[in-house]
Amino acid sequence: MRADRRTGGRADCDRRAFFTAVAGALFLSARPPVRPTAQGPDSLPGTGPAGRLWDPARAGRPLEPVNAADNDAAIQAIEKQLHCTCGCNLDVYTCRTTDFTCTVSPAMHQHVVGLAERGMTGQQIIDQFVREHGVAILMAPPKRGFNLAGYFVPSVLIVAAGLVLTLVLRRWARTAAPDRVSAGPVAPAGTSEELERLRGELDRLSV
Amino acid sequence: MTLLGNLALWLALLVGIWGALAGFVGGLKDRPDLARSARHAVFAMCAALLVAVVSLEWALFQHDFNVEYVAAYTSRNLPVFYTWSALYAGQKGSLLFWATVLSVFGSLALVLTPRHHRALLPHVAGVVSLVAAFFISVMLFGQANPFQRLPYTPLDGNGLNPQLQNPGMVFHPPMLYLGYISITIPFAFAIAALLSKRLDTDWLVAIRKWTLLSWLFLSIGICLGMWWAYVELGWGGYWAWDPVENASLLPWLTMTAFLHSVMIQEKRGMLKKWNLALIIGSWLLSIFGTFITRSGVISSVHSFTQSSVGYFFLAFLIVMGTASFALYANRLPLLSAEAQLESMVSREASFLFNNLLFIGIAFSVLWGTLFPILSELVQGTKVTVGPPFFNQVNIPLGLALLALTGIGPLIAWRRASVPNLQRQFAVPGTVGLFTALILLVAGMRDFYALMAIGLGGFVVGTVVQEFARGARARHRQYGEGYALALGRLIARNRRRYGGYIVHTGIVILFVAFAGMAFKTETEASLRPGESASIRSPYGWTYRLTHLGISQYDALNRQVTAATLEVSRDGKRLGVLTTEKRQHVDALGRPTFQPSTEVGIRSDLREDLYVVLGGVVNGTEQAVFRFTINPLVWWVWYGGMIVALGGLIVMWPGGSPAAKRSQAGYAVRLVGEP
Question: Does B426 have pLDDT greater than 50?
């Protein structure tokens, strides 16, 4: 078979070759897309010395290698109670592991590590920071004095409002009950099947 | 075009002032000519503000850096997508956006509100004009004019903050703004009802769609904000109890309370005073949120730069709050209930307790947000109120609210009998208990997580039971197949079953929040070829091998990208890339500090979250933070389901019976007078 091309030219192509070509093209196009992330294991570089970057300034502030104190759970727990003073509203740990342009949180981290190395406990380190910076250094106000109002006013008000609401609702319910009684006995005007159907309808309509 | 924009702003201000005067006088004096004029004033103000928006967008796209706003928030190499969104990226532009969207919503409200509510419309036009005129006057008199020119023309602009160059940031602020702004329409109807003394259920019917729309926009805006914070800020979480985040949550809480309590007014004619107070309060909280983000009174990473604009908002908040509640107090005698609560064990009572918790949580969030100022006033010491405080106060309240989410639908309206309660609670209660028990046996010991997931099981049990009973009833009554019955059940009772879908989304969100209790993280500095391991709370171990660092230039940034190969328990999963981006202007000058682009590998169980901290001594040895965040995808799915449920509730139509019950149809039982 000869297939005429629109350009006017002619191509020598028999039916089998044509269908083979079409099937081949379909097979190739139907293959699952290659995920750009699927690199082979041979792409792993060696473990030699790290090369120098073309422009290190683009990678932000130069950092020190991570040491054991950076991942120390006790140090992290202390830092999560301390407020970074760079203006970020984050705790020291989150700031130093998030905003790597910040120079305040790494300095505070070094201070925490230094105090820990001097044998201070977590509470002593926190107290030391409070002495140096005031209570605003804590991520939550200490539970004493006026700060207790901060912790307990919402809960106390909600409980009080709940009690008042309960009393009011009980009073309303009591006043409503005699009204219902005075309205006379309710005579079910239907069989139990009809009442069940009515209940179903009301259930269906209620929002 | 900036001259045109300026003229449009002045015209909009004058028309807005006229619209407010004509609306209120026309409504109070029953003058149709003034009422008509107020309506036209809203349309004219809308047209003028749209001209101002087009003028500003024109200046942005023309790179007219002589305009201070254009120079401050764009650069020649900023992608088109973000050049468009620069409209609301800065304080001045966002004020224009606010006023414009409000005038569009106001115009739509005036056009779409059915004719039988027309007595309210002059006042609605008055309130919309007044609020929009306030925003325009802040722009013109509060040194916030987006068309202000510089005495010179810079070669290029500063560009947009890199953290705002994220698709989430293109959609999140407008969604939140739409939520905030659309609350003005229900507020305008509430004030109109108070002024015109038409305080029956009619005004509630007029605002039903608007309250849902506002709630939906706020919900989507908050979820998008969480997503943006998670993928862009790099701290590994999505909610930090920041004052600006809290400001968006406050009106959402009060609007959600309203959406529940309004059902009691519609069905029983009760809680009229409460519902009006909730609408007024929600609107004031939306203005409070705007004040917080623009005043600088409370430090926040999200807020605009500190400016005098905050004082305008504070004054407006005080004046409008005083005026609204004075009017409200004056009309209290007209707001008596048409029915009384009959039993403590009724759906009405459960909704009241649900409202108490919503308002309680809103109060505790507001209290915590303002406590640093209060502490400074009372004890002269500023304190920090961060996540530990908010979690301690709000988690128990949130769990109580979750419990009520399951309890409310199980209790009958008016009065529930003991057999009815037993029948209703048996299945959901068992599901909740079994869920908690299974987790306990599996080794979960975190109390709050256990409670959240156990109560989640209870609420899902409630929702499934409601759907199953409804579908079974239709199957029996109409002989429909179960799938068809379920579809028609939802279609005929969109408000009820859409609400249950929202509840399901909320459960998913709570479960996702509980997942963060099991977050693990570690830091490592790796040379190419070196690996670090991190153990997942599910028990498996991820191994991350540093493949190397590449540096290249992109459109408006210089990129340093670190690539890591990820495997889990020895099985290779693929590679992850995390970047440092140094944004530059068209002249190649750095515009901001380098920002971080997080690498995230997600599945339904957990996210592996990788942050490139930087490099050691200019080499390929890189510092990374690896975090495993369980169940984060559930937050996004939960948000989507909440939005889907909201859309179903809002969708027009529904059965005539359901419409009747929503329009103040009070159910009367056999034998009742």
Answer: yes
